[in-house]
Write a structure and sequence with these properties.
Elements: H1 6-21, E1 34-43, E2 51-63, H2 64-77, E3 93-99, E4 119-124, E5 130-135, H3 137-142
Antiparallel strand pairs: 1-2, 1-3, 4-5
Amino acid sequence: MVSASKEMAVYCFDTLVAHHTGDVVPPPAFEEGYFPLFVTWKKVINGGEPRLRGCIGTLEARCLFSGFKDYALTSALRDRRFPPIQAKELPYLECTVSILTNYEPAAHYLDWEIGKHGMILEFIDLDNARHSATYLPEVAAQEGLVV
């Protein structure tokens, strides 16, 4: 089974750097595959804890090479919660990647393990508008959530 690797995060970082410099993105140093994926950017400010700067991905299986390339830029430049990442921010950025596998419905709202399972929440509100949110496996642990 494929798991997220440092090489995948480096490839995403190289993609963002190339976007800002006009350089060519070096070829990926990991194996190809098709999986749902997410790219997360965090920025260290004044030596403090890294703060979220962008995170976007897809629940649809994508080719890892093109998927990471696309979502590295989408999460850095088009996350509606943040202004686009600028070249001057590059030295302060951290990049992590997530590959999602083995989806399974929860039998109960407490049927998951912090740090191991992610969560996809979907609901329809009183106006019949559909809403959803995706929480990656590491988010609950980073935010100090306990069940």
